């Protein structure tokens, strides 16, 4: 700031800087108050003005002025809109080649060429030996400019094995047999063929896809065989800690029957109804009077016999 106070010509060129900022903004209302100046160097000062345009909160119109040695006239060097300390900025720019993700490439899209792709390595160069060239070119198909490197092969195997066509997918865990025993599996060549193959069953959800030999689905060629138990451990049970189970209270005595409540009206009706007398069967020995429900338990029972009482008068026979 000491150099700015000495350069009074550049420090007093606020009106000149404002005119340039308004010309750059195109609308005088978008240029706000003067926020100060910044000493950029010897005889070089930048005037800052607040930006009032929509969407540019915290941005500043910056006009840089200078002068020649021993000059008394300020000259505009450049003018631009720069972000301030509290300006709203977009995300950091990322190149297009780094923004792409698997599955983003559509019809007509072309990926940028990568000469140093670690997933690739130079292909087979013919040596002139018929035996070696026949194996490398005809059997392994390595006669290409670049072929899959060990890193690319390992990354592909890891991605396929842990994906939806691997042995840990829900459909594979629910299947009765693995793909390695299916008649529709087409093994791959090379090291990947030891773990993966291509499904050729049109009824399978994985038709035409690379699947792990330990993968499985419901379209196995041998569905009539007995299911083989899976060697994968059973998943851990899910515990619902927010649910409350209501359990009815038990009796204090084990095995005790719960009392049955009888309505009072039923008891009164039963008492009001007359008791039904059951006639006793005739007997030669004892004829007991029927006992009703209302009779007392201690009441005497009168027995009837064929003999007459001793005090009864005896009738005399007629002459």
What does this structure look like?
It is built from 8 helices and 9 strands. The chain is of the alpha+beta class and 319 residues long. It starts with a helix and ends in a 47-residue tail after the last helix. Among the domains are: 82 residues, Nuclear Transport Factor 2, Chain: A (Roll); 63 residues, no CATH class. The radius of gyration is 53 Å and the shape is elongated. The protein has a 4-stranded antiparallel β-sheet with strand order 1-2-3-4, covered by helices on one side. A hairpin with a 2-residue loop joins β1 and β2. About 7% of the residues have low confidence.
Layout of secondary structure:
Elements: H1 2-6, H2 8-11, H3 14-25, E1 31-41, E2 44-51, E3 59-66, E4 75-83, H4 96-99, E5 120-122, H5 130-139, E6 146-148, H6 150-161, H7 170-174, E7 185-187, E8 196-199, E9 210-212, H8 264-272
Key features?
alpha+beta, four-stranded antiparallel β-sheet, 319 residues, 16% strand, 19% helix
Short description:
It is built from eight helices and nine strands. The chain is α+β, with helices and mostly antiparallel strands. The longest helix is centred in the N-terminal third of the chain and has 12 residues, at 14-25.
